[in-house]
Design goal:
With 415 residues, the protein is of the alpha/beta class. Helices cover 38% and strands 25% of the residues. The protein is built from 15 helices and 15 strands. β1 and β2 form a beta hairpin. Participates in both transcription termination and antitermination.
Length: 415
C-alpha cells in the first residue's frame, strides 16, 4: 500500500507498556486527523485505521458518487467518471472508499506528524509514570544506585525509571555506592519542566512505619496500629503503638523475641535507637512513657496550655534530655506537649552543662588540662567550686581562676 511505515514511532508504544492500547490508538488517530484537517479543511469523511502491532496506518476517504458535473461539495462527493477510475463497478448514489496515499501530504508534513506523535507518546509515558508513583506515595520500594552526587542520588527502578534520593532525605550515616540496591519510601512526585520527578526518603516517619509493617505481621494484619511516629533520623525514634486484641502485647510484638524484629529495622536505619511504647489517651502516662528511658518522679500538667513540668531525680535528668536534647524533643513531638525538665530535689530547671573543651578558644589549653586534673571537666563542675577551693586544689593563680570563672559564668548568663 502507499502508506508510511511507523515502526519507529510504534516502538515507543512497546516501551510504554503501562499505557493502555485504546489510549495509544486514540493519540495516533488524533495526530493524523490533524494532518488531514490541515490539508483538506475537514476530517469528517475520513477513516483513520491504526495497526499498533504491525506498526502501520491507513487512511480511507469516503465520498458519494454523483453525476458528472454535479459536484457541490468536493469533500463529500465524487463525479461518476472519477469513481469508475477507482473501480468500474461503482454507480451513482453509492459510497466510494478510496485509500489515501500518505505521501500526498508531503514529506515535511509527515515528518512533523511523526515528531508530534513521538512528543504525545512521551507525554503519555510521563503522565503514566507520575500517576504510578503518585499512587505509591508512602510505599517502600527498592531501587539501584545509578549515580551518586553531592546533593542527591539518582536511582533506577526495575523498569529503568529515574528516582531521586536527596541528601536531605538520607540518614546522616547513609553511604551508598553505584550498583547497590537500597530501600526508601516514595515521598512525593514533583513536576519539573513537564516531567515527573519522583522523590524518595529514608528519613520520613513513613519509612519506619512501613519497615515495621514488613517485620511485624500483627501490624500488617491490622491487629496492632501505629498511632504516632517521631524521628531524629539516624539518632532516635519513638513509636507509639496500640493493640486491638487484648491478648497481644503491642510493644512485645514489635520488638520480637530478644529484639529479633526490631534489630533488622535498627540496622536498616543505621543503628537508630527505636523506643516502642504503648499508646494511651492518658496524657500524663503518655508523657511518662514518651520520656523513656528516664523515670519521672512527679509531673504537673497544664492541659489548656499543652505544657508539662516534669520532675526527676538528678541522675535521670540527662536521660530525659538525651544526647543533644533529642529525647526530650521527640517526647514533645510525640505527645504534643511542651515539656520542661526539673531536678526533683531542687525544683529548678536543669541547665545544660558544657564541656571545658568548648572554651578552648578563650581558655588556654594548659589551664583546661589543670582543671581536668582535679576532676573539673565541665563548666558547671568548675563553677560549683569556690575560687578559694580551686586555688587550693590546682596550681593556677588567683587571677587566672577569676578570669576562667568569669568566662564560664558569662556563657550560662547568655540564656
Amino acid at each position: 500500500m502507499a502508506s508510511i511505515n511507523l515502526i519507529e514511532a510504534f516502538q515507543d508504544f512497546k516501551d510504554a507498556e503501562n499505557i493502555d492500547r485504546p489510549t495509544l490508538m486514540r493519540v495516533v488517530e488524533d495526530v493524523f486527523r490533524t494532518l488531514i484537517r490541515k490539508k483538506y479543511g475537514s476530517d469528517e469523511t475520513f477513516d483513520v485505521i491504526v495497526n499498533a502491532e504491525k506498526g502501520d496506518l491507513e487512511i480511507f476517504r469516503r465520498r458519494t458518487v454523483v453525476d458528472n458535473d454535479d459536484v457541490y461539495n468536493t469533500l463529500e462527493e465524487i463525479e461518476y467518471k472519477d469513481a469508475i477510475k477507482i473501480s468500474p463497478d461503482y454507480e451513482v448514489g453509492e459510497e466510494v472508499y478510496e485509500e489515501v496515499n500518505l505521501e500526498e501530504f508531503g514529506r515535511r508534513a509527515i515528518l512533523a506528524a511523526k515528531q508530534t506523535l513521538a512528543s504525545r507518546i512521551s507525554d503519555l509515558k510521563k503522565n503514566v509514570l507520575a500517576k504510578k508513583y503518585a499512587d505509591r506515595i508512602g510505599e517502600i520500594i527498592s531501587a539501584e544506585v545509578y549515580q551518586v552526587w553531592k546533593k542527591e542520588i539518582l536511582l533506577l527502578d526495575e523498569e529503568g525509571n529515574e528516582l531521586i534520593l536527596p541528601k536531605s532525605e538520607q540518614i546522616p550515616q547513609d553511604y551508598f555506592k553505584k550498583g547497590e540496591n537500597i530501600r526508601a519510601v516514595v515521598k512525593k512526585v514533583d513536576m519539573k519542566n513537564n516531567s515527573p520527578v519522583i522523590i524518595l526518603s529514608r528519613t520520613s516517619p513513613d519509612f519506619l512505619a512501613k519497615l515495621l509493617e514488613i517485620e511485624v505481621p500483627e501490624i500488617f494484619d491490622g491487629l496492632i496500629v501505629i498511632k504516632r511516629i517521631v524521628r531524629d533520623p539516624g539518632e532516635r525514634a519513638k513509636v507509639a503503638v496500640e493493640s486491638y486484641d487484648d491478648r497481644i502485647d503491642p510493644v512485645g510484638a514489635c520488638v520480637g523475641m530478644k529484639g529479633s524484629r526490631i534489630h533488622g529495622i535498627v540496622r536498616e536505619l543505621k543503628n537508630e535507637n527505636i523506643d516502642v511504647i504503648n499508646w494511651t489517651s492518658n496524657t500524663q502516662l503518655l508523657i511518662q512513657r514518651a520520656l523513656t528511658p528516664a523515670k519521672i518522679t512527679t509531673m504537673e500538667l497544664e492541659q489548656e496550655e499543652k505544657h508539662a513540668s516534669v520532675y526527676l531525680k538528678p541522675d535521670q535528668v540527662s536521660l530525659a534530655i538525651g544526647r543533644r536534647g533529642v529525647n526530650i524533643k521527640l517526647a514533645c513531638e510525640l505527645t504534643g506537649y511542651d515539656i520542661d525538665v526539673y531536678r526533683d530535689n531542687e525544683g529548678q530547671e536543669e541547665e545544660f552543662d558544657i564541656d571545658l573543651e568548648e572554651f578552648s578558644d578563650e581558655i588556654e589549653p594548659w589551664v583546661i588540662d589543670e582543671l581536668k586534673r582535679v576532676g573539673c571537666d565541665t563548666a558547671r563542675s568548675v563553677l560549683e567550686l569556690s575560687a578559694e577551693e580551686l586555688e587550693r586544689r590546682t596550681d593556677l593563680e588567683k587571677e587566672t581562676i577569676q578570669d576562667v570563672r568569669k568566662i564560664l559564668q558569662a556563657e550560662f548568663e547568655k540564656g
